[in-house]
């Protein structure tokens, strides 16, 4: 379970594009806390701090205690927006959490003991991951860091379904009840797909190169014609 992290913030009185730009010029990121049956609260958080948290991973599964002007609010990140060019955070949405409330979060899946899976270690099979995260409905203070799946003894052809996965107490999977999380496939299955994809890419690159060469030759011919006319 992730520990509750403290996040210092500044309350914002002004909202809108102009106010948001002013906040960013001061080295902060505009954000809002909503939900919990209360009015939305506009805040600003430190750019360096929030950027570090986002890029460290697990941001959307972390419960924060946000301190804005002495008012502390427990909330979980619901969404964030990055500048498409620089990758710098430009806005964050937090969902306010209250006692007795559950939230839906995407929790990463970690696969353990591949070396102890005969289908992978001895027979050259490949772990084909269908779902890298699982959508769980869980209490905010019981969000797991990850769901761990032990591959010990797994053979080629084995499929791991959500029913095979041990979820934390009180957590509920929100997807299809018989969803496949991963399976172990023969070494040729994914290999053939990769080879076909690589061949398609090479063919496309070759066609693009031929087209560029034809354009260059046409341009050179046009230039020679212009010289002759001169």
Automatic annotation (TrEMBL):
<feature type="domain" description="Large ribosomal subunit protein bL25 L25">
    <location>
        <begin position="7"/>
        <end position="94"/>
    </location>
</feature>
<protein>
    <recommendedName>
        <fullName>Large ribosomal subunit protein bL25</fullName>
    </recommendedName>
</protein>
<dbReference type="GO" id="GO:0005840">
    <property type="term" value="C:ribosome"/>
</dbReference>
<comment type="similarity">
    <text>Belongs to the bacterial ribosomal protein bL25 family. CTC subfamily.</text>
</comment>
<keyword id="KW-0699">rRNA-binding</keyword>
<keyword id="KW-0694">RNA-binding</keyword>
<dbReference type="InterPro" id="IPR020056">
    <property type="entry name" value="Rbsml_bL25/Gln-tRNA_synth_N"/>
</dbReference>
<feature type="domain" description="Large ribosomal subunit protein bL25 beta">
    <location>
        <begin position="103"/>
        <end position="187"/>
    </location>
</feature>
<dbReference type="Pfam" id="PF01386">
    <property type="entry name" value="Ribosomal_L25p"/>
</dbReference>
<comment type="function">
    <text>This is one of the proteins that binds to the 5S RNA in the ribosome where it forms part of the central protuberance.</text>
</comment>
<dbReference type="InterPro" id="IPR020057">
    <property type="entry name" value="Ribosomal_bL25_b-dom"/>
</dbReference>
<keyword id="KW-0689">Ribosomal protein</keyword>
<feature type="region of interest" description="Disordered">
    <location>
        <begin position="200"/>
        <end position="230"/>
    </location>
</feature>
<comment type="subunit">
    <text>Part of the 50S ribosomal subunit; part of the 5S rRNA/L5/L18/L25 subcomplex. Contacts the 5S rRNA. Binds to the 5S rRNA independently of L5 and L18.</text>
</comment>
<dbReference type="InterPro" id="IPR011035">
    <property type="entry name" value="Ribosomal_bL25/Gln-tRNA_synth"/>
</dbReference>
<dbReference type="InterPro" id="IPR037121">
    <property type="entry name" value="Ribosomal_bL25_C"/>
</dbReference>
<dbReference type="InterPro" id="IPR001021">
    <property type="entry name" value="Ribosomal_bL25_long"/>
</dbReference>
<feature type="compositionally biased region" description="Acidic residues">
    <location>
        <begin position="213"/>
        <end position="224"/>
    </location>
</feature>
<keyword id="KW-0687">Ribonucleoprotein</keyword>
<dbReference type="Pfam" id="PF14693">
    <property type="entry name" value="Ribosomal_TL5_C"/>
</dbReference>
<dbReference type="InterPro" id="IPR029751">
    <property type="entry name" value="Ribosomal_L25_dom"/>
</dbReference>
<dbReference type="InterPro" id="IPR020930">
    <property type="entry name" value="Ribosomal_uL5_bac-type"/>
</dbReference>
